[in-house]
Design brief:
Layout lengths: L4 E3 L7 E9 L5 H18 L2 H5 L2 H12 L10 H12 L7 H13 L2 E6 L7 E5 L5 E2 L8 E2 L5 E4 L7 E2 L3 E2 L12 E6 L6 H18 L3 E10 L1
Amino acid sequence: MDALGTRHASLAIPVAYMVLRGLHRTYDPQIAAAAISDYVTALVAGTTYEQLADTPELAGYRQLHALRGKTGRQFLPSPESLFKLLFKRANWRSFDPIVDAYTLVSLQTLVSIGAHDLACLRLPVTLAPTVGGESLLTIGDITPVTLSAGEYCYRDADGQLLGRMECRQAEATKVTAATRDLLFIVQGHAALGARELHAASLLLGQTLTELVGFADAIEGPLVIE
């Protein structure tokens, strides 16, 4: 088992793990906010949600879900959900410079990226199928959802759930203004493999450095197929 993460043998899902420790918020938060806002403005003006949803990158997540019999609104892949919201609002509402930065990379690459506060979990992380009945409180919700059997989820070394597939992240490990140590989970599918995930992870590190600040240490990316 690697120090960052591992994958259940029955899941053919490529994942890249990357850890940043001691991230310094050096720059004005408005720098990251402006970068993603400008990108979203150009994106909405130049394409449509339907065109993006039909790309192999986004369609691949839906195909991955369909193979596991998980379709419907509750299983909308996070990148597609993000684009759907942006085209509805036609703008980006800034939250936190870290969130702004990794969301920008997700938009640029069409890759699912999740961020978790390392102070709220214990490595390594395992990607494994659900057995059904697991309870998870996702970001922004007040009532936990009960997971069905045959989904996949990320668990920390203590068994804590970090999210529901790549659709929703857990409230317990979300990024806050106090977050300094982070675990990023960059997940692909059959059409987004090791090369694409490695490139997206490197872009993520570069973007965080340029828009947020430098980190004392970076581990990874570790790509597991």
